[in-house]
Every structure is written in C-alpha cells, then in structure tokens.
Design goal:
Strand order of the largest sheet: 2-1-5-3-4
Distance between the termini: 39 Å
Largest sheet: 5 strands, mixed
Number of strands: 5
CATH class: Alpha Beta
Number of helices: 3
Helix content: 25-40%
CATH topology: Ubiquitin-like (UB roll)
Radius of gyration: 12 Å
Shape: globular
CATH architecture: Roll
Number of domains: 1
Strand content: 25-35%
Structural class: alpha+beta
C-alpha cells in the first residue's frame, strides 16, 4: 500500500487530499487511479502533472519505478499563468 497525496485538480476530482493505494509500481498506481476515478483519466493521459516520490521528482517516462509500502507519492497538476 502506497500513500498518495493529491493536489489541485487531482484533489478536486477525487474529493480527498490523501489516499492509500495498493500498487507495486508507478504505472500500476496511475492505472488504478484512472480506473477508480474515470475523471482523472484525461488529466493523467495529458501528462499535465508532476509526480514526486518521497519528495523527489520522478519523470513520467519512469512508469516502471518500483514502489514500496513506505513510499509517499505526490501528484501535482502543472499550473501555468501569466
């Protein structure tokens, strides 16, 4: 089980700031979230967000990154403005 902290539009869609998800890697985690919360699919598929694992940035190209029960994953949408 991995602790997932949600920010911005992730939090608005899920209506939670944090959750526990069973997952062994980043790709599985994102797939589980998309399946459990279909409204997240567009956001996740657009790759318009940043992933931190234990407060360190992880590129979305690293979907095979192994996760353990001690890990904390943060999902933060990219915010732009002027």
């Amino acid at each position: 089980m991995v602790r997932v902290r949600l920010y911005g539009s992730f939090r608005a869609i899920v209506k939670k700031a944090e959750m526990i998800v069973e997952s062994d890697c980043l790709g599985t985690l994102l797939s589980t979230l998309k399946r459990s919360y279909p409204d997240l699919a567009k956001l996740i598929d657009s790759e318009g967000f940043v992933v931190l694992v234990n407060e360190k940035p992880v590129p979305l190209s690293n979907l095979s990154l192994r996760l353990s029960s001690e890990d904390v994953v943060d999902l933060l949408p990219i915010i732009s403005g002027g």
